[in-house]
Amino acid sequence: MCIRDSSKSDGSKTIPFQNSWGLTTRTIGVMTMVHGDNVGLVLPPRVANVQVVIVPVGITSTTTPEGRQELFDACNALQDALQAGDIRAKADLRDNYSPAWRFNHWELKGVPIRIELGPKEVTSKKLMLCIRHNMERKSIEWADATLVTDIKSELDGIHDAMLTKARTARADQTKTIVDWTGFTPALNEKCLILAPWCGSMACEDRIKVDSADESKALIEGFEEDVKAPSMGAKSLCIPYAQPNEPAESHNCIRNGCTEKAQSWVLWGRSY
């Protein structure tokens, strides 16, 4: 795409700087699909609007109004201490919902850490944590001097664990293919495919058509649907970090192409 160069008077054209506003919504979608589970969202701590939610527990019919208020005050004090340490914390003191309902509410929203604070925890100066991404429960000391550091350490640990899990899943679902016979079966296994490509747009178009046709033949009971995706493969990107093995040592992945590859390319199903 070219536009008229406003800095010149000779009518010459220039290539504009362009941006994709789809980055934000697509990134949110990828985050939801990669980290989410059957309970709901699972948010990485660094992007979570609420990093820690505090839910009071242990209030019963025998709890006095004074005891109830003391617990709420402790929740607010904990919230304020965390917020003062630059942790996005929120105390959920709503009394029209049960603790279990609020647990589910914040799990659905993907909040990384839930702190369950009851009279026992206030007395023992211990905090009961529920870690959203793996539902692990753990107890930590509630020491004012180290509270912020301890919670930040937990958040960093969650970040690292989620990133490692996502990278492992991606690596497990990425296959290096140098022969066309393995291309479509890997595609049908929902894998990313790293394969050599000659750089020809004609070859890319052919790969999309051939992989779509072969996929339909390999999937038992496939029924054509005019609204369904083509199910062919398309090039996703040319990774900056290329494998040690030169792409030029292989022919292009496209069936029948005898040209030497120019680079390793990631391929995936086209929806």
Based on the model shown, name its key terms:
271 residues, alpha/beta, 4-stranded mixed beta sheet, elongated
Describe the 3D structure.
By secondary structure, the protein is α/β, with parallel strands linked by helices. 37% of the residues lie in helices and 18% in strands. The chain is built from seven helices and eleven strands. The chain has a five-stranded mixed β-sheet, sandwiched between helices. Strands 8-9-11-10 form a four-stranded mixed β-sheet. It has a two-stranded antiparallel sheet with strand order 1-2. Strand 8 (174-176), helix 6 and strand 9 form a beta-alpha-beta unit. The longest helix has 26 residues, at 147-172. The two termini are 25 Å apart.
| Helix count from the secondary structure assignment | 7
N-to-C span: 25 Å
Derived structural class: alpha/beta
Spatial sequence of strands, sheet with the most strands: 4-3-5-6-7
**Strand-and-helix sequence, N→C?**
EEHEHEHEHEEHEHEHEE
Total strands: the figure is 11
Shape: elongated
Rg (C-alpha, Å): 27 Å
As a percent range, the share of helical residues equals 25-40%
Mean pLDDT: 92
What profile does the largest beta sheet have?
Answer: 5 strands, mixed
Strand content: 15-25%
Low-confidence stretches: 225-229
Short recap of the structure:
With 271 residues, the protein is an alpha/beta fold. The protein has helices spanning 22-35, 65-84, 99-108, 119-124, 147-172, 183-188, 201-218; strands at 3-4, 13-14, 52-56, 89-91, 113-117, 126-131, 136-141, 174-176, 192-197, 233-237, 263-269. The strands form three sheets. It has a five-stranded mixed sheet with strand order 4-3-5-6-7, with helices on both faces.
